[in-house]
Specification:
heterodimer, A: 355 residues, alpha+beta, 5-stranded antiparallel β-sheet, 8 helices, B: 262 residues, mainly alpha, binds adenosine-5'-triphosphate, binds magnesium ion
Amino acid sequence: MTGKVAFSNVSKSFGAVKALVEFSLSIDEGELLTLLGPSGCGKSTALRVAAGFETPDSGDVSIGGTSILSLPANKRGIGMVFQNYSLFPHLTVTQNLEFGMRVRNISRDKRSARVGELLELVRLSGLSDRYPHQISGGQQQRVALARALAVEPRVLLLDEPLSSLDATVRIEVREEIRRIQRASGIATIFVTHDQEEALAISDRICVMSIGRIEQVGAPDVVYRSPATEFVARFVGKVNDIEIEVLSSTKARLHGHSQEIEIASAGKNAGLGAARLLIRPEDVQIVRPDSARPNVRGTVKTINFGGATTTADVEISGTGHLVRVADSTRNMRYRVGDSVHIAFDTERALLARGGA
Amino acid sequence: MRRGRAGAWLVLVVVFVYYLVPMIAMTRFAFQRIPVIKLSFGNLFDKWTIAPLIETFKEPEFRSSASLSVQLAIATAALTLILLVPTMAVAHLRSKRMRRMIELSSTLPFVVPAIALVVGFAGAFRETLPMFIRSPFGLVPLYVITALPFTHRALENGLAALDLRTLVDASQSLGATWYRTVVFVIVPNIRASIATAAFLALTVVLGEFTIASLLLKNTLPLYLSYSQGQNPQGSFAVGLVLILISTIFVASSNRLGKVVRS
Ligand SMILES: Nc1ncnc2c1ncn2[C@@H]1O[C@H](COP(=O)(O)OP(=O)(O)OP(=O)(O)O)[C@@H](O)[C@H]1O
Ligand SMILES: [Mg+2]
């Protein structure tokens, strides 16, 4: 029943605003794919085009190989959960869950059996007769998810379903969503602008910036090997260090004599001023006599973060701050200590131009 | 602070007296069997009767005009809701500009006098659709327009309080057609506003005089005006009942709004 969802070259503008530009993406059966990007980059527009609430200017959207663009929104068999609370305020939880089934003329017995199943699935069996305003935000979103699943949709679209919830409830509901999605095996597109949420919940992440796809890949791939500067900055933390590229394998920190290796990062870089985008965990504090090229600096701040600790190290001579992350066990420095740091540029990215 | 309070009370008392004294006078005139020049504080509790009301209710002219007015009122309320609810819902969903245009045109009855409306209406339809002018139900569209400033505001308040976009999208993604969405999602969620709009439309129709008079239709207000000569007590009695009904309509629509909101 469910099938592969595919966007091919979908473009959509609102007046002068290009919300989607040649957007192509496919979501496999049973997969949870996250659209991740800053506010206004077109995530909701992509979902709304798939759901039938917006008509694309060009391109196609298909499910299981068949185009769905000619179908109106109410015939697409797509379940959707919205950012704003969307339960019908005048109906109880049970009546909300039954809404889609009534539209489909499903018999009373089948409806109540299905409602029972769904309430159990989202663990809200005791709340069947409450009205939406009588349950919490997290519970409302779980009911909204159950309501979308009630009609056995081919695809599930979740548009920032957690953004109006508190931090702790958010994590709880997101795990619930993941569990239910796995159990139901429905192809799901999940939208968020929270990178941590995306990394935690997804099979694959599609990072977007103003209407375009920057990178699609598994969470670890997107995090470890960002394809573009945008991705590196948007997903996780990144150091932005001014360097001068000397050759395809060597560079020098700006205003510093120490050379560092840029073997893999520097593949496509020209010579001259550039910026090294490197994650805190790829910068290490090393012994002064380490065989690796290293630079001297002073620990300025230390942020204890439980399992990992980060430190901001000011490089001597340049005044540049570099963030270093390591497991708390290895971090045995204090503010003011003089340390040596080395750069593991294996997964770093080079960007053009001095900052 | 104190002084402001006292001032407010004073205004309230003045307004109260301004409205209440004529009402009391009307009530005594209509329901006491005492010649009007003999009415005084001394006989405030004497010879009360509802006979003038009952006698008027028995008159065939009264019955026909009252029945016409009730039918017109119901038809006006119905047409108002059928036209306005889907149109305003669409405007809320689609465009701010459309919403503003509807808002602006809803205030037209304040600007265009009833006489101009009737002259335009009669001029347009006398030749093309004479039926429309001859039938008393030709009044209904004019009444819909006359009541628009009130009915529009009532519905606008209800729609503005909803996250209509999300509710409609949710309904459609669950498979509902536009018709089903209006009837089972939008209407139940603005039912207090709908009741208010309906009551206001009824009230406007039950009190409208100018248009009916210009188009020579025998509605209740016209009957009351004409019968004042022959049956002054009866017409005041009916007038009071009308005021009472209107007050109940308006009060219950306010109450409804509060109950549903809480
Ligand atoms: N109905 C509309 N009319 C005009 N412009 C719109 C409309 N819908 C979206 N846009 C514009 O299109 C762009 C993309 O909007 P979209 O809602 O898809 O962003 P988003 O990624 O979902 O952002 P957010 O994280 O804030 O929800 C934005 O610039 C937005 O202002
Ligand atoms: Mg959005």
